Amino acid sequence: MRELVLLCPGSLAEPLSDALLDSGALSVSVEDADLDTDEEQPLFGEPGSEPNTQAWARNRVIVLLADGTDPEQLLAIARQDLDRETDLPWHLREVPDADWVRLTQSQFGPISVGERILIVPSWHADQMPEVPVAGCIAIQLDPGLAFGTGSHPTTHLCLEWLADELPSGATVLDYGCGSGILAIAAKMLGASSVTGVDIDEQAVQATHANAEVNHTEINAQLPEGLPEGQFDVVVANILSNPLKVLAPMLSARVRPGGSLVLSGVLERQAQEVAQAYAPWLTMTVWQARDGWVCLAGRKP
Fold this sequence. Notes:
This protein is of the alpha/beta class and about 300 residues long. The chain has nine helices and 14 strands.
């Protein structure tokens, strides 16, 4: 496989990229041609918004070519789409063959969460401890297409709550189970039964697969399959807006005297989310990390 590398001015970067994609390029990326030099031009935008300037003064356009693609023909078609004459310097470079998925995965090694939990990605299964330290658990995890690798601060916060606060023999509901990491951790930390729920069928499948690998029993299903009943602990690591919408339902799923644990909430959103649950539980910040919080409360 080969890459076509072109240099172009800022005014041409976006239309050229579109024309190359329309002409058959597999992918196109644009970077500052003066990167790591005194001429480097940082582009910034306000958080949550796009920069006002979409390209640099001098741009390096990198085009991934399918095998057998003639770069000169591709450029000729792109010039026609642009409806202008463009004589841009370019060259080809080889892209080494590699299993890019495995190469990317290999950069993420085992993760320790607090003093009791070790998360081992499936591609590092050879690093699973044969006999975990007493009181500690090791979870082998393959996120698949679901959220939950164990690296995000919100996942860490929920895992640490489970490690520190989960009552032995508790019944647990993990709403928004993703890869199943919280559900599996709860079961391995002493929960008597764990139910996982997710709106994504692929997440439900990932939870089942990860539970099997870790020799745990998790009852995972889509929301419509969740039976009636209450739980000793309900944990939901989602985002603030869904958490606010789900407040009546999640609160109702907590038995009297049980605990509700919420994350996926930014520090600035904590009060607003807590207010949504105020009619049923008093939610307070249990811990914060890297701008995120874990809210926890006990139902009267």
